Amino acid sequence: MENLLLNLSYLIASVGFIIGLKMLGSPKTARKGNLIAAFGMTLAILATIFIYPSTAHITVSTFIYILIFIAIAIGTAIGWGIAVKVEMTKMPELVSFFNGMGGATAALIGLMEFHHNVGNPGKIFMIIAGLVIGSISFSGSMIAWGKLSGKLRKPIRLPQYNILNTILALAIIGFGAYIIISGISNLLYIYLLFALALIYGIMFVLPIGGADMPVVISLLNSFTGLAAAFGGFLYNNMAMLTGGILVGSAGTILTIAMTKAMNRSLSAVIFGAFGEGSQAAGSGSKIQGSIKEAGPSDAAILLNYANKVIIVPGYGLAVAQAQHVLHELEELLSKKGIDVKYAIHPVAGRMPGHMNVLLAEANVDYDKLVDMDDINNEFKNTDVVLVVGANDVVNPAAKNDPSSPIYGMPILNVEDAKNIIVNKRSMKPGYAGIENELFYNPKTSMLFGDAKAALTKVVQELKGM
Amino acid sequence: MNEIFNFFNQNLQMIYIVILMIFVGIELISHVPAVLHTPLMSGANAIHGVVIIGAILVMLHMEPSNKLGLAIGFVAVILGTLNVVGGFVVTDRMLDMFKTRK
């Protein structure tokens, strides 16, 4: 009977994960889908705590139960606290942080299970695979988190880091295989492997440029899924297996979809052709010309007499928390009978969909957000494009300059519009570290300043017109 | 070599599940609009928190006298819970903002 209950709980949990993930794929059902997956998870955890011990014929001391409950209580309090408090702009690094926690859990399981299973190569294989992948995911996610939250700004590259990383990866695989085949029982070996995997995770993410971070997080996300699945194999646990594999494969597809949106290959992201190319291009093709600066009133006048305006949001909008005032501006223009839309580049911000989340927070109508492919033909009929804190996704070098590191990335055809207003804090290059000739375009006016402050002034000017 | 064959035979059902699940995962994600990529990644991130079950299993089997083991297991359960709870709550918060205003 208990066996039936336990298996049934895991079955319901697995189906919950599948249905939940499916429903997350559509805006209407997404929230419900998330709750269904959460329900499945809760059921699986409760069944493990309360039903599993009797099916395995073990008696668990009250002390251990108390420890488990305290641990869950602490984790819930911290997790809930962070998740509720954090600003929407910090979402990407938060996902990375939580992902790292899952990876660490998988790694710690491996550390604890090793000595019980010495002499069983099949199980040792599962343990080592889970340990290594979990550790890489943990340390890699922590570096990604540090980079996204601005603690580690520049990509750090050791000389010949690609060769170094490949040697380290081969060493980890070889060492792991040795432990499995030799049947060695010395715990020191497993700790050494753990350390090597942690170092690899750091070395793997450190050289990757900030613009590629979303891809890396998605990749590490699927790594953690894989680590969880190896745990499922180890314990013969269907909920862990299905959940883990599901995330592993879905995460891989999501990663590929993201690299496609940036027109880059996964290997280019991992082996980092980005930074080196940009240094060469930066010194080779310095852009000549002058920029035209515009004040808030100039921008307001341009917008006031337009018939059609497209707003291009970028990471600068998120940093300045200017989504609410931007929405105010958009409503003001709409009231004046101007057609206003938002053009969403798939990789604007630090994560795909980042801008949608941000603008949704400010109650921007879902229908006003238009994907790149659907809006790119509209720019030529547009009077004013307002670029707020976006840079690389509107850089014409992606189309014109084969030496540019972002050459070939699909961009928004902003330069087709009649007038362009670019709001930026300064002339500093974007996250990819490359110059943008759009700013030197005669049609472009630069509205310098923090997005929130600058847009607030524009709104005030508009109200007076 | 024999061990590998044995392993394959013993775990055949699980291997089937793995392969089928890979295709399910691919199918589920391949038609998702880019606007939902962030919440989707976040939701998937919460689901792999299922690894917490492994941490709980370790704790349930642990000898109460194994202080180091209990300490590591305790930390593992905390981190796993962080992944699950944080993941689902943050996804819910994100999706709350996608409400269509009509």
What does the model show?
The complex is a heterodimer of chains A (about 475) and B (about 100). Chain A has helices spanning about 1-25, 30-50, 50-55, 60-85, 90-115, 120-150, 160-180, 185-205, 215-235, 240-260, 265-270, 275-285, 295-305, 315-320, 325-335, 355-360, 370-375, 395-400, 450-465, and strands at about 310-315, 340-345, 370, 385-390, 420-425, 445-450. Chain A has about 475 residues and is of the alpha/beta class. In chain A, β2 (about 340-345), α16 (about 355-360) and β3 (about 370) form a beta-alpha-beta unit. In chain A, α5 (about 90-115) packs antiparallel against α6 (about 120-150), α5 (about 90-115) packs parallel to α9 and α6 runs antiparallel to α9 (about 215-235). Residues about 275-285 of chain A have low confidence and may be disordered. Chain B folds into two domains: about 1-30; about 35-100. Chain B has about 100 residues and is mainly α. The chains are: A alpha/beta (about 475), B mainly alpha (about 100).
Q: What percent strand of chain B?
A: under 5%
Greatest interface:
A-B, 117 and 82 residues
Structure classification of chain A: alpha/beta
Largest sheet features of chain A: 6 strands, parallel
Number of strands of chain B: 0
- CA(first)-CA(last) distance of chain B: 64 Å
Overall pLDDT of chain A: 87
